[in-house]
Amino acid sequence: MSIAHHAMRRLSLCSTILPALLLSGVAQAADAPVAPVAPVAAKTAWQETRHGTVVTDDYRWLQKKTDPAVIDYLNAENAYTAAVTAPIQPLADKVFAEIKGRIQEVDLSVPVRIGNFYYYTRTEAGKQYAINCRRPVGANGAYDAQAAEEILLDQNKLAEGQKFFSVRAFSVSPNEQLLAYTTDTTGFRQYELHIKDLKTGQLLTDSMPRVTSLAWAADNATLLLVQEDATTKRSDRLFRLALGGTPQEVYHEAVEQFSINVGRTQDKKFFVLRAGSTDTSEISLLPTDQPNGVFKSVLPREKGHRYSVEHRDGLLYILTNKNAKNFRIVSAPLSAPQSKNWKELVPHDKNAVIKSLDVFQNYLVVMEKSRALNRARIYDFASKHWKTVQFDDPVYLANPAGTPEFNATQFRMSYQSPVTPPTVIDVSMKDGKRTVLKQQEVVGGYDASRYTTQRLWVTARDGVQVPLWVVYKKGVKLDGSAPLLLYSYGSYGISTEAGFSIARLSLLDRGVIYVQAHIRGGTDMGEAWHEDGMLMKKKNTFNDFIDSADYLVREKWTSPNRLIIQGGSAGGLLMGAVVNMRPELFHAVHAAVPFVDVMNTMMDASLPLTTGEYLEWGNPNEKAAYDYMLSYSPYDNIARKNYPAMLVTTGLNDSQVMYWEPAKYVAKLRAYKTDNHPLLLKTNMGAGHGGASGRYDAIAEGAFNTAWMLSQWGITE
Questions:
Q1: Terminal CA-CA length for the chain
Q2: 8 Å CB contact between 239 and 208
Q3: Is there a catalytic annotation at residue 331?
């Protein structure tokens, strides 16, 4: 989840721009081994008056994606990056081989039962994408590996001839005969609807562009679909599609700060239409056997009230933040859900935020986060008793892993830690017994005892305790000499999680210490943690990161000349802000798809999701918010001083942070910085926000980034 942007202003380029673009890094005389020279972006006069002040943007022309000069510039930057990094390509190839050698290329996900089938994905050696399959349920409801496999989607075949391919929605009809799915072939995250007849294998003629969520009606012949706006990418229209007919608009969300999505309750009895902004939500319900009916609001919109609902036996279970910053759970009759009829089931806990709620026929499962760690609590409706599922490791990540059957007695969870590969576990909701179904294999052997992980607490400048987690190979000297990679995000209430990474082993095995900081802006320590890192408190996010880095240096985990930092998307904003504030603290930076051109983006309400982000960042049309955002916007605060070495990566088709934000940032930084440290821009010309879509291509991108960081530490093998 991250800020989303799309270039709108069309600035006509004069014919002199292309000659003014110095592409001297692209071609060199064959007999003159001259060092690559960085491209220099032309400057053009673009001005706008904001709050009485004239603002100049020299690189506004880079926002015109359709202009050949823009593509030429991006290609020139790519050529320069390739030339500069040619010496590290063997290391990148080696890291790629290491990562590829650790993954189980032929693999099968843990099958999950839905109705009369077990569904799973599998991968084949050498193929980039997963294959979606199912098998009929075996005797006594068990998974039968010998039952005939039915391939629902071979994503490798669908991706043939495409530079990018992604499946988003994947939903089988109640009668198990039709599959509705959506695909994106550009990386712009605009998904087209397809419906496949699973009996014949043929696609129906029904289709629809820009679908963001969907749900089947009980009649197996009707879909409810949410479509996003073609320009702003806000999910704002709900349609009803009777197969073979024309989609009919059911609802339009007019308020720009709100977007909508559609789904179903766990018992499949109701469609759930959720309208939500950063701080407010509204849920409406419609029986799935009445798709032509009218949605009914559960509770009207109330500024600051966020809630979600589940249904069981005529009762609604409501997860609400009303009089409960970290949320609580109440029940109310379906026919009378008003607050006067609420009965509290889970009270508010100032030390634990409720992240999700799952309701089954006989049980209720609550996922909570306390002190940056997740736990599950299971309620037995019959006995009215609670059981808690938590783990003993100092840091870990435990999440729901999908339990679609309403009558389930096992709750599926995923568990991992920085030293424990992802593990799928079934937890008995009756007695809490855990059954390990699968642990991700690290091919070639993996010994967790060779590594250690721990929790650290940093006292920020305002006295707040900020948690960090650390993982490293045993034997690394903690005397300030170790190379260290510090990562964080810190926005939208998204927490930093202590997960496992096969790719990270290539760093750890070379003596790199890896650290993540749970800085404010996420909900790592509750909803207040998010509120203290947004709007007019956003600078807490940057200060927490800097204070964490200072702590790591002070406590001799590393030193400034051994400290590299990394962040992506809104975490890329973090990178840009902290290097403006404390450039001497960091040796090098990897900023991925970074949201760095804050003011130009947020001042243009036509860009994707910009107005919806006012409640996260502030509305720059208000002077106080404008001044505060301007004071930290990375692009606007570039100064004539030394900066760390920087690798900036992006995708041409990024719909969330447009390519031009990092492109403009690099162009301006190159013109201003006073050092000789590397500054590289690498653009994937056929992908978007998430980078390459194929698994091997994604590994190659990550291996390059890793090799670049290793080279900055002076690690060459």
A1: 35
A2: yes
A3: no
Average model confidence (pLDDT) across the chain: 94
Query: Which DSSP helix (H) or strand (E) runs through 316?
Result: strand 315-320
Strands (E), 6-115: 47-50, 53-56, 107-108, 112-114
The predicted-structure confidence for 102-133, as pLDDT tens digits, reads as follows 999 999 999 999 999 999 999 999 999 999 99
Residues in contact with 531: Cβ distance below 8 Å, sequence separation at least 6, in sequence order: 537
Residue 519, token pair as written in the block? 């800085």
Sign, CA dihedral 570-571-573-577, equals positive
Task: Give me the helices (H) in 430-569, please.
Answer: 505-508, 527-531, 539-554
Active-site annotation holds for 385: no
Catalytic residue at 569?
yes
Q: What are phi and psi of 521, to 5 degrees?
A: 120, -25
Instruction: Collect all residues with Cβ–Cβ distance below 8 Å to 241 and sequence separation of at least 6.
Output: 206, 208, 222, 223, 224, 225, 247, 248
User: Which residues have C-beta within 8 Å of that of residue 89, sequence separation ≥ 6?
Assistant: 707
> How many residues in the chain?
717
pLDDT digits (tens, 9 = 90+) for 244-272: 999 999 999 999 999 999 999 999 999 99
The per-type count for the chain, helices as H runs and strands as E runs, is 13, 38
Task: Write down the pTM of the prediction.
Answer: 0.93
* Sheet with 178-184, side-by-side order of all strands: 166-172, 178-184, 192-197
Q: Determine contact, residues 181/166, Cβ cutoff 8 Å.
A: no
Q: How confident is the model at residue 45 (pLDDT cuts 50, 70, 90)?
A: confident
- Give the H or E element holding residue 380: strand 373-380
| Catalytic residue chosen out of the listed positions 654, 655, 693, 711 | 654
Chain centroid to CA 75: 27
Cα separation, 226 vs 261, in Å, equals 6
Catalytic residue among 331, 569, 633, 711: 569
- Provide DSSP, 173-208: -TTSSEEEEEEESSSS---EEEEEETTT-PBPS--B
pLDDT at 15 over 70: no
pLDDT band, very low/low/confident/very high, at 284 (cuts 50, 70, 90) = very high
pLDDT at 162 over 50: yes
Which of 174, 195, 188, 203 lies closest to 247 in space, CA to CA? 195
Q: Residue 521: what pLDDT?
A: 98
**What is the C-alpha to C-alpha distance for residues 201 and 152, in angstroms, rounded to an integer?**
8
Helix axes 539-554, 570-581, angle to 10 degrees: 60
- Edge to edge, the sheet with strand 328-333 lists 307-312, 315-320, 328-333, 343-346
